[in-house]
Design a protein that fits this description.
globular; FAD/NAD(P)-binding domain; about 450 residues; alpha/beta; binds flavin-adenine dinucleotide; six-stranded mixed beta sheet
């Protein structure tokens, strides 16, 4: 039986362990955190994850999807709260499509439990990876309680140790290893809306709530216990920023001015707001992801992205599925398996990284913008006429279309909508036969740009 070591029992490491065990590997998984319940519960990191089609496909393939579904709340659209208290509902699609919100710790726990039930998987907690010899596939771990150092060797190493991966850092010292990182100029702090006395929700529960305010925004997700987890995203510096909001009075005033509709619901949670840590957001790109036939990076370790499309974990789950497909295609040929894995994933994770940066601007600025809303309306009209003509959000979230292909389709969609939105008073004319005819013509004639196939 082949032996694989996974470093990191976060969302991706746990799922990968199941995939490998089901492929008849003996798996040892090393995690620096001690308490399984605490894994991945980094304070200040969002406590909610939204899962979508591609994430579920990867979870279903090993039989854990339905366990996860039970802990999710379906979200059918966004509710945008403007500063004057008006709310606009934007459904995600015409057919009740939903994304699924789950508490990060619930997801982490379910995946760990599921992994621990499999045969051939051994967990080692409080073991921090401090070095790797890639040539001999030997890892050095430090036991965090005792300080004891151990060395462990296996045929294959998988680094699922997140955005600040120790193994990637070692690979960065190899010749011609490409690496880039970019921090977002904004960070976030969490604010909770508790449930009401009946443990039900004080806001509509089947939607994401967004309060876009140009340079900053508040986002809220429902939890199963009736509470909502909000995160306030602010620039680090500037007039309204983490730097300028220093006291309880400052945050109270910010809410009075910009989020007055929600203030009564969050008042008690604002007390300790300024004591909470600020979560950073980072995009990481690197290449190669693998070392010979011996080691591979997976999940955030090789492609951390901004969270605004809710795709980081979904993409990491998809990595696991693609890796296993490569194993099935080239049995035993690890050099080819790892090369095919990185070749197939890299263009797609680059595409989603790009789309996440864009979506950050869309959510923050454009969600409450009339032009954006008009574009969405046109998009829904086109979708009604051509069910196969799908939006970027749809392709990313409700299909398993490769991200790079979704980006290519989007270029065409944008070109069509650009032309329709430019028509005078188009909103009033949207349901007229003339606009219908124009849409048909444009959909037929506008060509999608040709991108490299992935
Ligand atoms: C604010 C925010 C919101 C998000 N929302 C979503 C969302 O809605 N949907 C979505 O799909 N994704 C979302 N993401 C992204 C998602 O959290 C990540 O993509 C996902 O957690 C990556 O999983 P991972 O297992 O690769 O890394 P991680 O979750 O970071 O796990 C890495 C694990 O490795 C362990 N580790 C690290 N270093 C070592 C070491 N040296 N030795 C041993 N163990 C180590 C860590 O303790 C951890 O358990 C969001 C991210 C943020 C920041």
């Amino acid at each position: 039986m082949e032996h694989a070591i996974i470093v990191g029992a976060g969302l991706v490491g746990s799922l990968l362990s199941v995939y490998l065990a089901q492929a008849n590997f003996k798996v040892s998984i090393f995690e620096r955190n001690s308490d399984p319940n605490q894994i991945n519960l980094q304070v200040g990191k969002s406590i909610n994850i939204t899962l979508c089609e591609r994430g579920f496909q990867a979870l279903d393939a090993v039989g854990v999807g339905n366990v996860v579904r039970k802990l999710c709340i379906p979200l059918y659209g966004r509710i945008v709260h403007s500063q004057d208290g008006q709310c606009t509902y934007q459904p995600y699609g015409n057919n009740q499509e939903a994304i699924y919100a789950i508490k990060r710790e619930d997801l982490s726990q379910v995946l760990l439990d599921f992994s621990q039930k499999q045969e051939n998987i051994d967990f080692y907690f409080q073991q921090k990876c401090i070095d790797i010899d890639l040539q001999t596939t030997t890892l050095k771990f430090q036991q965090l309680n005792t300080g004891a150092i151990t060395k462990v060797q296996a045929q294959r190493i998988f680094a699922a140790d997140g955005a600040y991966s120790a193994i990637r850092q070692k690979m960065q010292r190899l010749k011609r290893f490409n690496y880039s990182q970019e921090y977002l100029e904004q960070g976030y702090r969490e604010i909770i809306i508790p449930s009401n006395r009946e443990r039900s929700w004080l806001l509509e529960k089947n939607a994401i709530h967004i309060w876009p305010r140009d340079n900053f925004m508040l986002i809220g997700f429902p939890n199963l216990d009736g509470s909502f987890s909000l995160s306030l995203h602010l620039p680090y510096v500037g007039r309204i920023s983490h730097e300028s909001i220093k006291t309880h009075e400052d945050i109270q005033k910010l809410f009075e001015t910009y989020f007055s509709d929600i203030l009564p619901l969050v008042k008690s949670s604002l007390q300790d707001y300024c004591m909470k840590p600020i979560g950073d957001m980072i995009t990481i790109k690197c290449f190669p992801w693998t070392y010979q036939d011996k080691a591979a990076l997976i999940g955030d370790a090789c492609h951390a992205i901004f969270p605004y499309y809710g795709q980081g974990a979904n993409a990491g789950f998809e990595d696991c599925q693609i890796l296993i497909q490569c194993m099935e295609k080239y049995p035993g040929d690890w050099q080819t398996i790892l090369q095919e894995y990185e070749k197939s994933r890299k263009p797609n994770t680059d595409a989603i990284a790009h789309l996440c940066s864009e979506h950050f601007r869309i959510l923050r600025k454009l969600v409450g913008d009339p032009n954006f809303l008009l574009r969405k309306k046109i998009e829904r009209k086109i979708q009604k006429m051509y069910p196969e003509y799908s939006s970027l959000y749809h392709n990313i979230t409700f299909t398993c279309m490769p991200y790079a292909e979704a980006l290519r389709v989007e270029q065409k969609n944008r070109a069509v909508i650009d032309k329709i939105v430019a028509i005078d008073d188009v909103e009033e004319k949207l349901d007229t036969p003339e606009i219908g005819l124009l849409i048909s013509k444009l959909v037929r004639n506008v060509k999608a740009p040709v991108l490299a196939r992935v």
